[in-house]
Amino acid sequence: MAEETQPQAAAAAPAAEAAPEVVAAEKAPAEVEEPAVEAETEESAAVADDGGAVEATGSFKEESNLVADLPDPEKKALDEFKELIVAALAAGEFNLPPPPPPPKAKTEEPAKAEEPAKTEEPAKEEPKVEEPKTEEPAKEEPKTEEPKAEEPAKEEPKVEVVAEAAAAEQAKEEPKAEEAKPPEPKTQEVTAEEVTKTAEAAAEAAAAATSEQTPAPEAEADAVAPPEPVFIWGVPLVGDDERTDAVLLKFLRAREFKVKEAMAMLRSAVLWRKRFGIDSLLEADLAFPELEKVVFYRGADRESHPVCYNVYGEFQDKDLYEKAFGDEEKRERFLKWRIQLLERGILSQLDFAPSGICSMVQVTDLKNSPPMLGKHRAVTRQAVALLQDNYPEFIAKKVFINVPWWYLAANKMMSPFLTQRTRSKFVFASQAKSPETLFRYIAPEQVPVQFGGLYKEDDPEFTTSDSVTELTIKASSKETIEIPVTENSTIVWELRVLGWEVSYGAEFTPDAEGGYTVIVQKTRKVPANEEPIMKGSFKVTEAGKIALTINNPASKKKKLLYRSKVKSTSESI
Question: Measuring CA to CA, how many Å separate 543 from each of 481, 517, 519?
Answer without folding.
Answer: 17, 12, 16
